[in-house]
Amino acid sequence: MFLKNDLTSPKLIINENNNIFIIGEQLTYFLKDYTSPSDKSKSNWSIAYCEKIDSQRPIIRENTLTIPLGSNNLDFLSLTRAHKEYSKPRSRIHTWRALIKKTPSRNKKTEKTNHIQEFWLIQIIEYLFSLVDFHPIEISDQKQTDNGTNLITITSRIDDRQESILKLLGIKDLAIARLANELNSEERKTNSNWRITDSFYLGKNRQSDTQWHYTGELKNNVFTLTGDSEISKEGDYYLVPSDQKGTYAQFLRRAKALKALAEHNELLEMLINPRAKIKNSHDDITEDPHYEHLDKSKQETLKKLISTIPLFLVQGPPGVGKTKLIKELVRRRYTEEPTDRYLLTAQSNSATDHLFEQVTEIFNSTEAKPLTIRCGKNDSDEGTPDLRKQSAKIINNIRSSNIFRTASLHIQEKINTLHSHYTPSPGKPNILSKSTSSTRTFEGLLLRSANFIFATTNSPELERVIEERGQFDWTIVEEAGKATGGELISPLLLSYRRLMIGDHKQLPPFNSDKVKEALLSSDSLREALFLSRSVISSELLDNTANDLFNIPETTEELDITPGENTTEDNFAETCRKSISKLFYSNN
In the beta sheet, which residues pair with residue 498? Predict the structure, then answer.
């Protein structure tokens, strides 16, 4: 009933990035093409799937396509009914295709769309390289051991599509060598857990996937694994490292950040033309004793970065005092504005830890401590305020306060219940119980309230703050040269004052050389994209990203005018420009 009331006069919106949504009376409904759960095929816009609902209105610009929809033209389907309707002849239901076709030509992309697509291309290349983690196998034998577990024997096999994709990316190792090297690597000796799936698909784990433990090499290139599940010897399977689930989660976070970037006009314009967007903040600096203790170069840099918005870059080799500059900036600004919020981030945990140790030294001698959280370190040393431990500490403080003792019984019961969710796991005194909806709500409140948050650029907590539209007064990125442009998007989205610090002679981002080689071989990359589209989850893409896969085999399929570049030419240009998104020093 609520949906029908909210969509009495709906409008279909297709923006410049080809994002599609419906605006209701109170809510905005974000749409994508429905995908069949059984065969992963698209409905070709016979059915639209609502992937997200937001209470905030998107920005409607002059070139945004707006189509009024009659409320009687909408039919609301459950996923079960949608699956049934999908299997029927298409004539039986209305189609969205005619409306979607009104989208402006995708060959005439805006500068902003081009810029986002360059980031997407790097992201997709990383997806393609991760396909090497799928090891095609055959199950040659299966039996039950004395302790009741199942023992299987596997050998490598060839998957023609995977081999073609990997060869186009420059990976020449044979499947049998890749499997043997991975199973016997040092990393797998400490984490020998695997899953077996019947799907060559970069997406969420399937219910039919089974978990296994590698036990050893029976004979040359014949391996054994144990598990609790039975599995048919018939069929084509893939052996995948269990930690690939974490890789997918990281990919999903970066994809969400790129989707958020498409709606963040200020950051997009700054990335396209940084110098044109630099402004004077008119913030003055007090030349106090702390200022006098700085050398002349740091004094000048401090003045400039405080007076510059929305972005300031500091570059210098190790040992020149870049972290000292951060400490003085934080000390000064926090003293002047104690309610300001700071996000301090780096690509690696080690760099983030160093930043945390140095900056928190400022407050060692102060009586009133700022609320500080170190995200993503649930296995951290005692005393490190990771999100869960900081939450548990605050709940304990509340329970021992006068406020708690004078609160109503109802409030006390709620706080006691929340406290019970932060008790250590049985037999593991340093590990708190698994999170619940109550703890996640409370931790979200802390993320929105903390004075200082320290997190890696890929932290899931940053994804959460972005989704909740949180903001910081300052974002400070240390060792920016070790992060790709895509990894920097999340922290840059979260503030309108950004300080990036790096060393132009620092080691480049991990795997950046491989990605760069792929971009330089644009013809091979185009072919790899063509072969891989159906193996990448739609959750990891949007319409702008999907355009990279929609490259026709001949230029005759294009609607172009004389003098215009072909899609192939545009793709090569996109590859060339994407290289600059890999490296901080080229941005």
Answer: 311, 475
